[in-house]
Amino acid sequence: MFWMRLLVLLLTLSLSPSFSLSQDPEWPKDVPKDWAKPDLAKESAKFPGTLRIEFAGEKAKYVILHTTSGKAIIYESKDWTGNANDKFLLTQAYPCTGTTTYWRNYAGEIKKLGETDKHKWVEIKERPCTVTPDGNLIIVAKNDRTVQIWETGKPTEPKQEFDAHSRGFMDLFVWGKQHLVTLASTEVRVWNLAKLTDKPKEAIFGNQLRSFALAKPDNRYVALNFGKFVHALDLSLMKGKDLSEDLEAGGRCEFADDGRSLLVLTAAKTATVYQSAGEWKELLKLGDAETKVTTAALSPTGTYLAWFDLKGTMHFTHVASRFEVAKYEMPGFKPGFVTWHPNGNEIYITTENGSAYRTVMKK
Known about the structure:
- By secondary structure, the chain is mostly beta strands.
- The protein folds into 2 domains: 18-48 and 211-363, YVTN repeat-like/Quinoprotein amine dehydrogenase (Methylamine Dehydrogenase, Chain H, 7 Propeller), CATH 2.130.10; 120-204, Beta Barrel (Thrombin, subunit H), CATH 2.40.10.
- Helices cover 3% and strands 44% of the residues.
- The protein has 1 helix and 33 strands.
- It has one helix spanning 2-13; strands spanning 20-21, 37-39, 50-56, 62-67, 72-76, 90-91, 93-95, 102-105, 109-112, 118-120, 129-131, 137-141, 146-151, 160-163, 171-175, 179-183, 187-192, 201-204, 211-214, 221-225, 230-234, 239-243, 251-255, 261-266, 271-276, 280-286, 295-298, 304-308, 314-318, 323-329, 335-340, 346-351, 356-362.
- Strands 1-30-29-28-27 form a 5-stranded antiparallel beta sheet, with no helix packed on it. A 4-stranded antiparallel beta sheet has the order 2-33-32-31, with no helix packed on it. It has a 4-stranded antiparallel beta sheet with strand order 3-4-5-6, with no helix packed on it.
- The chain is globular.
- It starts with a helix and ends with a strand.
- Residues 1-16 have low confidence and may be disordered.
């Protein structure tokens, strides 16, 4: 009997990647017991070439696989069966910035997920674009300074055209229902789509904008990466706060689905969680001299942070109390991106070799 048990154990440890749960810690009184442990022993099938995963549509109806080749594969969440031969709804597509429910393909066609109607402007296939929430307007960055506004279904000529910036135009997105936000190398401008002749509100910075992240659901908050720091900007007030981070050598920012919790990951392998209640407050910082954070993601409500260390161990930390509710030893596992499903019950993990896994949270 002993040798039989030993054989089973060896077979279990031979699986790659292997998962083992560390002993449960003693639970503090101030930490809610809504924690659901992920079933890491059950991994989904691999999807080679997957860089990261996101969700789109009402109730996360669609799964989007961003690939290392720059392409994207989109299909309905209910069809996630672990089978790479699933019928994809749209392939080789790029998102229109500001909303993940509208996509365009290489021909320049723009399509709302779940609908068959397409709107085609071939000249915008490589240009930044966005779509208003009602789907009536497609807004395109024509060149380094010009913005064109098109009515869907009327590709003959644009409805309006104006100069947004003098130089360094980078991207644009829609905030709320009637505001257009344009970003240049050192400035952010907010335009009223109903009164484009009015002077836009403006915020000017002294550094070069490298990237940005938007807060759901209405893009009111935007995290701007200006090299050596992150600026959290409230578009309703056109005021913000510099967060003490160094991203010059790389790193990224992302908001939780609650729209108020912000995660900043640096090239120095630190992870910091901020939350806004009028002011951006640091709630949690990980990544000291001994423990580095290779990748991380906030749960939809911003309550928990899932993160990996250099050894491949997966940790779950309660943000407010900084208490580690669980950790899972995964020897040899090299994660890329971690994504929580909006329902908070599933976690999707990509690896450095382009594979993707799904784990299910269980009470």
